[in-house]
Amino acid sequence: MIRFEAVSKHYGNDVYAVQDLTLEVTTGELCVLVGPSGGGKTTVLRMVNRLVEPSSGRIVIDGQDIATIDPVELRRRTGYVIQQSGLFPHLTVADNVAAVPNLLGWDRTRVRSRVDEMLDLVGLAPATYASRYPHELSGGQAQRVGVARALAGDPPVLLMDEPFGAVDPIQRDRLQQEFLRLHAQVQKTVIMVTHDVDEAVRMGDRIAVLSQGGVLEQYETPPELLAHPATPFVSDFIGADRGLRRLAVTPIEVDDLYCPPMVTRQTTVAEAQAAVAGQGTSWAVVVDDAGRLLGWVEPGRMDEAGSPGPSGTVARYMRPLDARVPIDASLKAAFAEMLQHDAGWVAVLDKERFLGVLTPDALHAALRRSVGGDPVPV
């Protein structure tokens, strides 16, 4: 746990980088600092490992005031990831990752094992990348090595200053996904700085919004921050489109789903038409005996003529259903699928098993409910 107790950094003449910052980052939590330039975000980060000393207040890590810890020892216990990775250019990838374990006095065998473990963890095969130099890596690969190096000494705290800001949007998205996966595995206490509100919403367990001069405007979970900005500054900073941003942090729930009529490939045309009759819909979902989604049909447009067999069953008229998401996806992912496939609804699956569909009306109702509004009838 990291606790900031009325921490300030004063530069004189009433100029503050940080003013009376009080907040707590729970063990294993990912806290994101956002705000404009001059908001003190990087100063807060650098105070945690005493690269900058506070003018007043205390920073406590796991019950110990960091002012009582030797700065060098503190930094060896704190991982640090910066923009553009900050790798040592004259060292190989393996030697970069091994830097802190070597400083901690680990034996060679343990260091070598840890390097391989960390490179595997960030998705870089040791046999391929360990002997490379930083100039031989792409931006995304270098950033992964930077994360591996920061984690190599098994620090309880990880500090990240705009870690994905210097890579292209595609690599940035992949790195964000990869880091969230890593964080779920290693459960470090992380403080991360970013200027990107969307990145903060996606990455953070909680978000601290700092205004000019390092004033804490609000410290909340992403859903609560987007739903209920505490001050006009927060509202302006996160933008008028915060409702759309909230889609990214609102999960799909089973209760949001509409369950349409379901048929199988062997269902006859007459049976399919009977299944949708009186259901207020013109279509049905096709599943197999295990409930796996196969496609969809519109029984009203089927031709009943022909003898029993393929021409008289759903199999002949089934269409593929490409708009689909897993149940653990966000409303944003479901909405994106609808737009990408120009679909009126998206199928929701538990692995391969069909659970139901999410319609635009249901999506809107779910979003309204998540921000405390009255649900919209579906």
Whole-angstrom Rg? 26 Å
Look at the helices and sheets and give the structural class.
alpha/beta
Instruction: Assign the CATH class of the largest domain.
Output: Alpha Beta
The main sheet orders its strands as 6-7-8-3-9-10
Which stretches are low in confidence, meaning pLDDT under 50 for 5 or more residues running?
A: 305-310, 373-378
Biggest sheet descriptor: 6 strands, mixed
Give the helix tally. Answer: 15
Task: Bin the helical content.
Answer: 25-40%
Which architecture name of the largest domain does CATH use?
A: 3-Layer(aba) Sandwich
Oligomer: single chain
Could you report the average pLDDT, rounded to the nearest whole number? 87
CATH topology of the largest domain: Rossmann fold
**Annotated CATH homologous superfamily of the largest domain:** P-loop containing nucleotide triphosphate hydrolases
CA-CA gap between termini: 44 Å
